[in-house]
Write a structure and sequence with these properties.
One of its GO terms (molecular function) is ATP hydrolysis activity. By secondary structure, the chain is α/β, with parallel strands linked by helices. 46% of the residues lie in helices and 9% in strands. It folds into three domains: 2-75, 434 Repressor (Amino-terminal Domain) (Orthogonal Bundle), CATH 1.10.260; 95-125 and 314-389, no CATH class; 135-310, P-loop containing nucleotide triphosphate hydrolases (Rossmann fold, 3-Layer(aba) Sandwich), CATH 3.40.50.300. The longest helix is centred in the C-terminal third of the chain and has 18 residues, at 361-378.
């Protein structure tokens, strides 16, 4: 159901926020329905389904045939069907707040002077020491490194802004720092989409070209597919015998078509005797986990062989993360925000109704930057809970 409803909205050009408003459902609850097939506990599920179908028909789009779909599961949270609360006391995140959290927020010069910042604490890490590593993030980092060194097939899945790209960049930097004999292959994915209708799909021939360019850059690529893959196998085998390991890293892997996902299993089957010649790391958003569902028979051969590692939210690591970010400025966290502000930030990014935590680095940074700008405008010495609630 999730992929079908998402496809209907995309094909009809209907924004999720528009649908959520039309059927009186919060944006987080609609996201949970679309991406994970869940509705809040206690909600009037027949009403929601009927309202969605009516809205789609009135918009000229086909209605979802709910009788052919799985019954949505329910999350363990109350339904967002009550009237909006006063903004000063509400704890759930509404659509407008979500848009603010997703929008880029930059510290103003006034805020930098106000807090005595000589550098942007929210800038991308410039060295390995600046990468925040919680226990969960460290596990994902080490898993990626072991796959790159010793072989494997894994998918790293996390929400937008969870830090997936940072871990990929740190992996490549670590390979260089430690002078590992690992050749990383990264196909360009700038225009990649899941279907030809929306953009260009990444196919196995494109992956073969990227591998050949990295492993044997001076070789002239064969024209026929059969000869090209034989050439690829020989190049990987010769490089491995020379002492190299090879890892294919694909960003935005949630945009890969199912055919390419299946072909990756065949790339993994390229061996020199018993030794696999190419490891694979996929990096993508939660839609990738939907594609790799054990209930999807089209990719069962891949699902049986791939390790899925999720990059979780910083629910219990918020204070440690903030302390780490301001460490680059040699600024104690208490000079920027007090304990009440930390809890207010946690509450603001932890929806109470129908959605998962938003405590990911990018959302945290955007929200705190907005709060710091507001504190500077108000002239208060530190960010307080009231300042956080006001952004």
């Amino acid at each position: 159901m999730t992929l079908r409803l998402k496809s209907i909205l995309a094909n009809a050009g209907i924004k999720q926020g528009t649908l959520a408003k039309a059927v009186s459902l919060s944006r987080p609850a609609l996201n949970a329905l679309i991406n994970h097939g869940v509705l809040p506990t206690g909600c009037d599920q027949p009403r929601v389904r009927s309202a969605i179908s009516v809205f789609l028909l009135e918009s000229g789009a086909p209605a979802v045939d709910w009788h052919l779909e799985e019954e949505p599961a329910c999350a363990n949270t109350p339904a967002p069907v009550s009237p909006p609360q006063d903004p000063d006391t509400a704890t759930e995140i509404n659509d407008e707040e979500i848009q603010m959290l997703l929008r880029k927020q930059t510290l103003t010069p006034q805020a930098r002077r106000h807090f005595g910042l000589t550098a942007d604490p929210f800038a991308d890490p410039a060295s390995a020491d600046e990468v925040f590593l919680s226990a969960d993030i460290r596990y994902v980092r080490e898993s990626m490194y072991q796959v790159a060194r010793h072989g494997g097939f894994m998918a790293v899945i996390g929400e937008s802004g969870a830090g997936k790209s940072t871990l990929r960049e740190e992996l490549l930097d670590r390979i260089r720092r430690e002078e590992q004999a690992i050749i990383a292959v990264e196909p360009y994915v700038q225009a990649m989409e899941g279907t030809e209708k929306n953009g260009k799909t990444l196919r196995s021939l494109h992956i073969a070209e990227a591998v050949m360019s990295a492993v044997a850059p001076l070789a002239k690529t064969m024209s026929s597919p059969q000869a090209r893959f034989a050439q690829l196998h020989a190049a990987l085998r010769d490089s491995a015998r020379a002492g190299h390991s090879h890892v294919l890293i694909i960003e935005e892997a949630h945009c890969l078509p199912l055919a390419t996902l299946k072909h990756l299993k065949r790339f993994r089957e390229l061996k020199d005797g018993l030794r696999p010649l190419l490891s694979v790391i996929l990096i993508g958003q939660p839609e990738l986990q939907v594609k790799l569902s054990e209930h999807n028979p089209e990719v069962r051969e891949v699902v049986q062989r791939i390790e899925i590692v999720n990059l979780p939210a910083l629910d219990t690591e918020l204070e440690s993360y903030l302390t780490h970010r301001f460490k680059r400025n040699q600024l104690p966290l208490e000079r920027v925000l007090d304990t009440s502000a930390i809890e207010a930030l946690r509450a603001k990014l932890t929806p109470t109704r129908g959605a998962a935590s938003l405590l990911y680095p990018l959302a945290i940074q955007n929200t705190l930057a907005a709060a710091m700008n507001r504190a500077a405008n108000l002239g208060v010495p530190t960010v307080t809970a009231d300042v956080v609630r006001g952004v």
